[in-house]
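Hey all, sorry for the wall of text incoming. These are the two entities for the joint prediction.
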Amino acid sequence: MTISDEQLMAYADGELEGAEFVTQRALLEAALQADPALAQRVAQHRLLRAQLGSLHAGALEEPVPERLLAAARAQPSATVTDLNAVRAAKAAAQRPARRVPIWSALAASVLIAAGVGYIAFLQRGGNPLVLKNGELLASAALDRALNQQLAGTVPAGGNVQMGVSFRARNGAYCRSFVLSQAQRAGLACHQDQSWHIKALAPTEAVATSADGYRLAASELPPTVRSKIEELIDGEPLDAAGEAQARHAQWR
Amino acid sequence: MESSLKLLQDQLVALLPRLRRFARSLTHHAADADDLVQLALERALQRIDQWRAGTRLDSWMFGIIHHAWIDEIRARRRRDRVLAPEEAGEHIADAASEAPIQRLSLEAAFAQLPEEQRVAVSLVLVEGLAYKEAAAVLEVPIGTVTSRIARGRATLSALLGGAEGAL
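and here's what came out:
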């Protein structure tokens, strides 16, 4: 029997595994046993296939960009045929998008894009946010407020409102805050004697509400809210718990 | 209804790394590849009702990406008509005849393949589809896929300089 290279290739690619190929496979394997040159060609086909397995392998290892995750989770936009489909699409769209689990320098740069420059522009008396070793930390008035200020109290001339305080799963204390002048809400967690900014987002309704000092979680921007949900261990602190935590210097 | 859409989107998310890899095989450019994947995701969700449960989601997505890429190539050709469309093919002939003087890296060699061979090789040898499945994605007969893979393989072996007598 004459054996074509295409047959050898199909054999190397596992295309002759099915029951309908039993005879063809048996003949081919007999020929491979008899002819080392044929066997060598099969080995070459397998080698090339194995080599190609590493092609663009970087795409498998890199984190998937957020825009693609969002696109995969987006609400199907066209050809909605009935009410059930509408509800399904809406429900799907309202679920929070999958979060990238690593708090990375990349995320810090996103936060910076979210408004550090803008805040620095608005805020007098020092930038409330500083970048240190790739991490965004609270500074100046924001750092003082996170350390000292209790929910529901704003000192004269103060621009920071404190929201919920809670213990994160890793044991750190975290507090949500609103920079009213800069119209930004965020979440900071206390680690190594600094307040690390974990989320920061523009806010309108919250900052303009006159009595929104102890903010319900639902009033916070979605990114801040979902960050809280991700980190919180149990329930937020009540007023007594908050005062106690301040007394212990948030450790 | 609701949960099936959610489930499907979970599967799409899980597929994203492979979709990005396949798109890179087409575009040779990471950012272009991600644009292509994003477009394909939008198109897939627009026609999500055409997805048949029980069939391979990866194949379906590869097909949508491939269609989007063909659209893109046509648009590019319209944009710059000056370029000869056979350019890629000439490169291969050159490189193959100059072998084995210079061995190319795998990705450089792969990039030299003509479009049709590159897609077939990518689907079968990189993404692991069966010939039949690749044929369905590309909407061509299985024999066409087989010969594209065979020619693609021969060219790659020659460019990589590792296959005495394979051509």
